[in-house]
Write a structure and sequence with these properties.
The protein is mostly helical and 135 residues long. Helix content is 71%, strand content 0%. It has a single domain, classed as Nucleotidyltransferases  domain 2 (Four Helix Bundle (Hemerythrin (Met), subunit A)).
Amino acid sequence: MTERQAIGNYLEKARESLAGAGSELANRRFNNCANRSYYACFQAAIAALLAAGIQARSPGGRWRHEYVQAQFTGQLINRQRRYPPALRTVLSETMLLRQEADYELDGISQRQATRALRRSREFVNAVQRENGETQ
């Protein structure tokens, strides 16, 4: 598989996760919305890293969540300025919300889920624009 194909595959996964998050919000499944919102960002971030020539560093070429967050923010926002500073906290904040949704007793509110979905859309759209993909 070429780099371009891998980037396209991760962007497609991100769009699918984003669509799932929207469906979950519409059906009042706020915990699932938070989960899918995070994964939309995570998958888009991997596409962005691949497009910048940054590879996974773990055994087996797996993308670790902390590594993706650190590289996206450190390299693509702070250093290369490919993405706006407004996206700096999206990955970490949606990951924390996903962890709360998945592992904590209390659920995610409609307001939290709506905000996560909105910010995830902005994140995925920015990565698509940077990579010449239509939205």
